[in-house]
């Protein structure tokens, strides 16, 4: 019998950093990190030396100066005397607006196309695969420009609406489709209008409360209350009644041709529409593939089992397939939302005033503060992307398969 | 897209540590070509012709500098720049000089650290409208949609003009002149505003130029000229005096046709100094004695360049106006060659 003894503990030698597998990987990582730090420090030092040599400095003082230029699409008050910081804020809001709208619309397009692509109808499924392949394989910038060019070339200019026999007329006398954008009526909030709005919100809450009550009643007593028409009634009737009781406080500001353009109403500019539509239809094609992949990832046995239990096809999809498909769909969906947000920086191609166009375009140019502006832009996109990612990850957690 | 251009330019600015510090003149000589920033295309000022050769009023300045420095007017690498990319391109050293109808302003000179070497065109901002609109004055443009190139002084002038007159407008920002032209013709904007010379050049390329009018108001001063980076005065002098040589040549009656004759036959000492048969002006600049002669021989004098590219006999049909020689009541005036 032999007695196992521990090998004598060797004292640490420098050569062990390379020869000993326990330390080797750490050694290499440390070297790589050091090299990276040196490289970055070299570049930064180089930058600052060159800036100093040209007599330039890094300063954010320009943000407080008047911007001096005007912006066509804005969600907040802004004029040419506002500061560069406010111009940047206008740009940020515009970026968020188009990203938000495009994310919603892309999801709608994507889900519809993805589900229809699995349709048994040959024509429908082929049409959808045609859509996916066409839109996915042509760069989004080209789609933005194509859609914008078609809009400006095909739609009538506002002056076509003028005269006794105009070439173009307004839809229902309230909607004008021009090559500068779409003009729609805007609500005018008179006194007492808040009561109507409050009633509306209360009835929305009421709809949910009723449906919940009906569901509980069904589970507890087995009595089935009608869902459809009472929901509709709760949704519409109180608001309409309150609207008349308060003496019709909400009016409509209908756009009218005045001077060179339509005045009044809400203008949705052509650049916003082109960008919104192009981003949604392009990203929608990618999302369609995700949705298809997600649905196909759910084993066929699940569908068959659900059918065997007597569920009809709509319920199979809603209650069995989609909840399981979502955990496959959500993670790539996050990256498509990030792509939409980042691709919205192509806005300048059609003159939409997003953050890249205001802070990274006009402000950068008029002040010449390239480094400062680009750093701010990078920071903004980083923050936005990380926030979207964080929110979507929280949502992802709620739909992942709960394993018990 | 634009972001990557900027980042690329920044990286180049960071990496090209020595390049900016060394003399641009030596760099150009060593390279054998001149990198000259021009517009992306404005007929008459800088645009490639059917054979892909760049031509125009600003291009002639680039070629004259190349002829003076390198002895070859074709040794120019033209770098098309937009209103937004031009200054980054120059500051980063991607181009040696910028001849792109760029307005000389205080902040560009002082804050952006560029040196404007002179003025080759005295311009002002105007408005173009379709005749059918029935507008006769820019002050009637209340509520109009205006196409405007971003990153230009005209963008700021526009805001100031409408503000000062207490009228409103809707800006449509565009990147290039071609884009502005397309939007304007499609009726996406009521009026297009830029330098009056640019408007005339743009209108000349329309199918029916007579359907469009330039409004009488000139709302700003736009002195246009070539520029170089701050801090390299030797190179700045070369570009400045090449431009001045073209201007002086017109004043003294030296043309591309008679330049070699004048070099030997003229009794005017200033002509002799200009053309290098007397004095050592070329040597002082770090060039040879024939530098100005080559520039004039290849491109013609200022008047010839003007007449050939944008003058009254061209489709652009600009009259000399402010851009006549000072001897004819204009503002074109070169310091003496002495």
TrEMBL record, chain A:
One BP term from GO: amino acid transport
GO cellular component, one term: ATP-binding cassette (ABC) transporter complex
Ranges where the ABC transmembrane type-1 domain occurs: 92-392
Gene3D superfamilies, sorted: MetI-like (1.10.3720.10)
Protein name: Glutamate/glutamine/aspartate/asparagine transport system permease protein
Family (UniProt): Belongs to the binding-protein-dependent transport system permease family. HisMQ subfamily.
Topology versus the membrane: Multi-pass membrane protein
CDD domains linked to this entry: TM_PBP2
InterPro entries for the chain: AA_ABC_transptr_permease_3TM, ArtM/GltK/GlnP/TcyL/YhdX-like, MetI-like, MetI-like_sf
UniProt keyword list: Amino-acid transport, Cell membrane, Membrane, Transmembrane, Transmembrane helix, Transport
PROSITE patterns according to UniProt: ABC_TM1 (PS50928)
Transmembrane feature ranges: 26-44, 96-118, 138-156, 192-210, 222-246, 266-288, 374-395
Principal location class: membrane
Example GO molecular function: transmembrane transporter activity
Compartments in which it is found: Cell inner membrane; Cell membrane
Source organism, top-level taxon: Bacteria
From TrEMBL, chain B:
Superkingdom, natural source: Bacteria
Pfam families attached to this UniProt entry: SBP_bac_3
Leader sequence segment: 1-21
InterPro entries named among the record's database cross-references: Bact_solute-bind_prot3, Solute-binding_3/MltF_N
CDD domains according to UniProt: PBP2_BztA
UniProt keyword list: Signal, Transport
Single Gene Ontology BP annotation: amino acid transport
Family: Belongs to the bacterial solute-binding protein 3 family.
PANTHER family with a match to the protein in the record: AMINO ACID ABC TRANSPORTER PERMEASE (PTHR30085), AMINO-ACID ABC TRANSPORTER-BINDING PROTEIN YHDW-RELATED (PTHR30085:SF7)
Name the record gives this protein: Glutamate/glutamine/aspartate/asparagine-binding protein
Naturally occurring in which organism (per UniProt): Roseobacter denitrificans (strain ATCC 33942 / OCh 114) (Erythrobacter sp. (strain OCh 114))
Gene label: bztA
